[in-house]
Amino acid sequence: MTPPRAAEPGTAAVVGTGVIGVGWTALFLSRGLHVRAYDPAPGAQERLHADLAALGPFPGHTGPLPTGNLTWAASAGDAAAGAGFVQENGPEREDLKHALFAELDEAAAPGVVLASSSSGLLPTTVARGAARHPERVLVGHPFHPPQVIPLVEVVPGERTSEEAVEAALAFYTALGKRPVRLRAEVPGHLANRLQAALWQEAYSLVERGVATVADVDAAISHGPGLRWAVLGPFANQHLSGGPGGLAHVLAHLGPPTERWWRDLGEVTLTPALVDTLVDGVHDELGDLDGPALAARRDAVLAELLAAKSRTELP
């Protein structure tokens, strides 16, 4: 067996170049890394270059990306060979993850972190494919678009070493990301579970006819969502309690809040509800072009992140 090639400092592998992989590639290139990319889909290399060229400015980068530092690999193993960090973005299927991580584990140099962008699979499950070095496998879950949103959820598995966790945290931090380490594995990790809780009640309110899709979007984007973009739910709740802070809020509003919890809806995504939600989005957005709306959103996010960077916040 040929030993793995030594890791090259300043080189990252991006395996899977769909929506998330494009974002990671753009971020890595913008921060001066050399990127070795691979995706087995037909035409993936051409799409990656086209998608990178179509990206607008994002925090920490303006102008064309240095695509001269981007190399297309012949396989997932070829991408991982010599890389100093591996970011995997394949489909959310256990069998495919296992096959992919077996190849990455075989090719990557010992000690190189193998991070999965999986939005819901547990790292212990993903690591079953890495028989040689499961201790270097973890989840490094970004939020779309990865080149814009700072959050990365770093989730170790049962056999992940502390060295791998620390290396991942340091790597993402050096890129300007805001990594959050989870203390336990749960399906969906942290932020997706919080989103799922909101979606459940949002879907229920629409299904029950309490509000339209547009009403729900407005209630969040013009209400608590503005505060949540600056401080998290606990910090904002603490501020709403005045001098007494969170203790005052929980003492006085805790009991009614518990009653609201008991009244929250449980929903099933029936075909009728799916049609209602999809039609509601179409009614809300009308003929507004999706990419154009995304570009506007990202421009506002960039201004918000710039403002946050100038302000001392938790």
Structure description:
The protein has 314 residues and is of the alpha/beta class. It folds into two domains: 11-181, NAD(P)-binding Rossmann-like Domain (Rossmann fold, 3-Layer(aba) Sandwich), CATH 3.40.50; 191-309, N-(1-d-carboxylethyl)-l-norvaline Dehydrogenase, domain 2, CATH 1.10.1040.10. Helix content is 48%, strand content 11%. It has 13 helices and eight strands. It has an eight-stranded mixed β-sheet, with helices on both faces. α10 (233-239) packs across α11 (245-263). The longest helix has 20 residues, at 290-309. It is globular and about 65 Å long. The mean pLDDT is 95.
Which stretches are low in confidence, meaning pLDDT under 50 for 5 or more residues running? none
Shape: globular
Enter the CATH topology name of the largest domain: Rossmann fold
Rg to the nearest angstrom?
21 Å
Order of helices and strands: EHEHEHEHEHEEHEHHHHHHH
> Which CATH top level class of the largest domain fits?
Alpha Beta
Total number of domains: 2
Structural class label? alpha/beta
What's the story with the biggest beta sheet?
8 strands, mixed
CATH architecture of the largest domain: 3-Layer(aba) Sandwich
- Looking at CATH, the homologous superfamily of the largest domain is NAD(P)-binding Rossmann-like Domain
Number of strands: 8
